[in-house]
């Protein structure tokens, strides 16, 4: 057989093989395109939960959907879901309202911030049963706007509910920058609830600016016989002491006499941030402590 004929036969065979491989590929592509046309877009879970919440007449299904939304840890930005959650705040079932209020902590983006804030504030005023949850929602949203601060500060001065007071103090500890300390001093002075008093001190220590009323309160309560409270006050005094070192020194001269190692360590921490000062009674007491104790942490 001539070489020319062999070459022609080879070319024909290559062409046939190419056609054979092309047909399955084309058929596969057609099948893939057909499947793609028939597939429905995937619906986001929060949208499905929102639909159940809005459309279901089964109370238990609505609770489950509201619970799932309240536990969702990512931002919720879908308009339909946000509208459903805001509407849900008026649900007859209190448990569902609470779950929806919690879910609002992660709802919306920057452009919706003001409108959501306004809706939550109106709900806060209208529905006392949601107040504690909404306070925590404002914390989750890190909403330290003047409008929210003003609303919650007014509530703090009027409420007599200890749980609500604790929630409000937690908000101001996290979002209380720029708020005057008077209300927190008043809360401390009028309450005999130890947790409330300690949280009031934490807020003052975190956001006080060395005001006389703040340093005076911290110095006085550092002398408390209640050790946990006194330790909290000493910790707060460490933050505020430079503004009024005279009053701070007077308090430390009393707390340094404590036999409690924790009180002594907390006192030392405050001493370390104060300006150097000659104080013979303090020096004498420090030498006594060094000679009497075998507590390595205290000696250090």
Describe this structure in words.
By secondary structure, the chain is an all-alpha fold. Helices cover 73% and strands 0% of the residues. The protein has helices at 3-38, 45-55, 59-71, 79-88, 94-103, 113-126, 131-140, 146-158, 162-175, 182-190, 194-207, 212-221, 227-240, 245-255, 261-273, 280-292, 296-299. The mean pLDDT is 83.
Order of helices and strands: HHHHHHHHHHHHHHHHH
- Low-confidence segments: none
Biggest sheet overview: none
What class would the helix/strand composition place it in? mainly alpha
Counting DSSP H or I runs of 4 or more residues, the number of helices is 17
The percent of residues in helical segments reads over 70%
Secondary-structure arrangement, i.e. CATH architecture of the domain at 44-107 and 118-124 and 135-141: Alpha Horseshoe
Average pLDDT figure: 83
User: How many β-strand runs?
Assistant: 0
CATH topology (fold) name of the domain at 44-107 and 118-124 and 135-141: Leucine-rich Repeat Variant
Could you name the CATH homologous superfamily of the domain at 44-107 and 118-124 and 135-141? Answer: Leucine-rich Repeat Variant
CATH domain class of the domain at 44-107 and 118-124 and 135-141: Mainly Alpha
Calculate the terminal CA-CA distance, rounded to whole Å.
103 Å
The global form is elongated
Radius of gyration from CA coordinates: 34 Å
* Strand residue percentage: under 5%
């Amino acid at each position: 057989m001539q070489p020319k004929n062999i070459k022609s036969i080879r070319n024909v065979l290559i062409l046939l093989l190419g056609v054979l491989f092309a047909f399955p590929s084309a058929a596969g592509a057609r099948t893939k395109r057909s499947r793609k046309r028939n597939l429905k877009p995937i619906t986001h879970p929060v949208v499905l939960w929102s639909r159940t919440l809005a459309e279901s007449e089964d109370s238990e299904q609505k609770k489950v959907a509201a619970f799932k939304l309240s536990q969702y840890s990512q931002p919720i930005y879908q308009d339909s879901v946000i509208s459903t959650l805001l509407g849900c705040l008026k649900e007859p079932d209190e448990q569902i309202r609470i779950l929806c209020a919690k879910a609002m902590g992660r709802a919306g983006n920057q452009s919706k911030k003001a409108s959501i804030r306004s809706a939550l504030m109106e709900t806060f005023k209208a529905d006392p049963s949601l107040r504690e949850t909404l306070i925590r929602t404002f914390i989750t949203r890190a909403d330290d706007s003047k409008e929210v601060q003003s609303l919650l500060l007014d509530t703090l001065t009027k409420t007599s509910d200890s749980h609500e007071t604790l929630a409000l103090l937690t908000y101001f500890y996290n979002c209380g920058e720029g708020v005057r300390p008077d209300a927190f001093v008043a809360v401390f002075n009028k309450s005999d609830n130890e947790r409330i008093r300690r949280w009031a001190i934490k807020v003052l220590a975190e956001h006080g600016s060395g005001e006389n009323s703040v340093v005076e309160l911290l110095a006085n309560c550092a002398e408390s016989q209640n050790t946990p409270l006194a330790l909290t006050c000493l910790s707060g005094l460490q933050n505020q002491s430079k503004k009024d070192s005279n009053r701070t020194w007077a308090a430390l001269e009393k707390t340094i006499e404590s036999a409690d190692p924790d009180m002594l360590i907390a006192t030392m921490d405050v001493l370390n941030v104060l300006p150097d000062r000659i104080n013979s009674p303090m020096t004498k007491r420090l030498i006594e402590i060094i000679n009497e104790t075998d507590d390595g942490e205290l000696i250090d």
